[in-house]
Specification:
- This protein is an alpha/beta fold and about 450 residues long.
- It folds into three domains: about 1-125 and about 380-430, 3-Layer(aba) Sandwich (Rossmann fold), CATH 3.40.50.720; about 130-250 and about 345-380, 2-Layer Sandwich (Dihydrodipicolinate Reductase, domain 2), CATH 3.30.360.10; about 265-340, no CATH class.
- Helices cover about 35% and strands about 25% of the residues.
- It is built from 16 helices and 16 strands.
- The strands form three sheets. Strands 3-2-1-4-5-6-15 form a seven-stranded parallel beta sheet, sandwiched between helices. Strands 10-11-12-7-13-14-16 form a seven-stranded mixed beta sheet, covered by helices on one side.
- Helix 4 (about 80-90) links the parallel strand 4 and strand 5.
- The longest helix has 18 residues, at about 380-400.
- The protein is globular.
Length: about 450
């Protein structure tokens, strides 16, 4: 039996577990702090084993890694370099869905020398975005084309039939992580110039964007897009932006939330036991109603849609703040989790679109490539499938000898994306592509 170790049993794990335990000749060990979570994922599958693991117990972690040919880490990204160190020690391959950190990148030469693959960013975004973009880029380059413009946007949203709150959003993972995006700086290329977007302005100017087969969304820039000029091998490009899709209204509301100070994660024990209205009063001290004070601070009318959303959320209510670690950010995350989670049977949606302008010797083309992946009612979410299945497939292909790359990689290499995307399409994940001569 080929043995694969999965570290973590979170919200996106189940499709990966089911996929690998259905592969003949593969035994999957699911290791997590609470073994009952791993047992629930495995559902008694004979090719699966559940074990309890506290990753702080480095001796136990090292021993488990030594027993398996491939380790898949769905742990927090801060732990990946620790895991990679044990993979080097025991000469074992590693797969993660997280962005490559500087610490991971520094292990490239050692991994190559050991004949190991440390494959990162093999989820949805990052992951499927890289693989499908590179298919188009490499195809264009083979035909003599040069990439002039490239936009790549992705977002997890409620399906239209589950989009029933004024934020137009529901959480398929930690609200804290989602809203903290409001503090990230961003950078992209526009007409040959680098555009810097400081965190406080990230949501200030979202772009409207029409998605074929879906409708109007808005998009804001995601992290630093500029290095992808080199990563994707397109040095000639003039406009390059990676971004995040949201329903219209999200960005203006998150900008207001940031401006009100609700993204502050300073621990404030005095918040525990206060009402949300009192908490807001501490952020916008003024005579009169809290809502009016927020309106004044934001420079908008009291009946503005932003304040309607904040009122619906409960930020002006007498609901009591109850957090293990009390901060404005934690209190916000808790109330979002309570009000904006998926209910049983509701579907989510992952939307991804690439748009290219490609110059060939005899023409210029606009290429749109769009994925609309819907979750299954009472089954796996689209987010879980698109994040975890690429990692599961990569593990299988690696064991079957269909991926021969070594070192620290992301899936922008045809040796990786070709077999993985072929299997993803077999499983029903596909893009609709249109081409228009300009």
């Amino acid at each position: 039996m080929n043995k694969v170790l999965l570290l973590g049993a979170g919200l996106v794990s189940r499709p990966l577990v089911h996929y690998l335990t259905d592969v003949d000749g593969v035994q999957l060990t699911v290791a997590t702090r609470t073994v009952s979570k791993a047992e629930a994922l495995l559902e008694g599958r004979p090719n699966g084993v559940a074990v309890a693991l506290d990753v702080a117990d480095e001796a136990a972690l090292s021993a488990l890694i030594a027993e398996h040919e491939v380790t898949i880490s769905l742990l927090p990204y801060t732990l990946h370099v620790l895991v990679a160190g044990f993979c080097l020690q025991h000469k074992r391959h590693l797969i993660t869905t997280s962005y490559v950190s500087d610490g991971m990148r520094a292990l490239d030469a050692q991994a190559r020398d050991a004949g190991l693959l440390f494959l990162n960013e093999i989820g949805v975004d990052p992951g499927i975005d890289h693989m499908t973009a590179m298919e188009i880029i490499h195809g264009a380059q083979a035909a003599g084309g040069k990439i002039e413009t490239f936009y790549s946007f992705c977002g997890g949203l409620p399906a239209p039939d589950a989009n029933d709150n004024p934020f137009g959003y529901k959480f398929s993972w930690s609200p804290r992580g989602v809203v903290l995006a409001g503090r990230n700086n961003a950078k992209y290329l526009q007409d040959g110039q680098e555009v810097d977007v400081p965190g406080p302005q990230l949501f200030a100017k979202p772009r409207p964007w029409a998605v074929p087969g879906f409708g109007e969304l808005e998009v804001y820039p995601n992290r630093n897009s500029v290095p992808y000029r080199e990563i994707y091998g397109i040095p000639e490009i003039k406009t390059l932006m990676r971004g995040t899709f949201r329903n219209v209204g999200w960005c203006e509301t998150l900008k207001a939330i940031a401006d009100l100070g609700l993204l502050d994660d300073t621990v404030r024990p005095e918040l525990n036991g206060q009402s949300y209205a009192a908490m807001m009063q501490s952020l916008v001290p003024a005579a009169g109603s809290v809502r009016a004070a927020c309106a004044a601070k934001l420079g908008i009318a009291e009946d503005h849609a932003i304040l309607e959303r904040l009122a619906w959320l409960g930020l002006f209510s007498e609901k009591v703040v109850q957090c293990r670690t009390a901060s404005y950010l934690d209190a916000l995350s808790d109330i979002m989790q309570a009000k904006m989670s998926y209910q049983d049977g509701e579907r989510d949606l992952v939307v991804m679109q690439h748009q290219f302008i490609i110059a060939y010797p005899d023409r210029r083309e606009r290429v749109n490539s769009t994925m609309l992946a819907y979750g299954k009612p009472h089954g796996d979410s689209a987010m879980a499938e698109t994040v975890s299945l690429p990692a599961a497939i990569a593990a299988r292909m690696l064991l079957e000898g269909k991926i021969d790359a070594t070192g620290v990689h992301i899936p922008n290499d045809a040796r990786i994306y070709t077999p993985v995307m072929a299997e993803m399409r077999r499983l029903g994940v596909h893009f609709e592509e249109t081409r228009e001569v300009l």
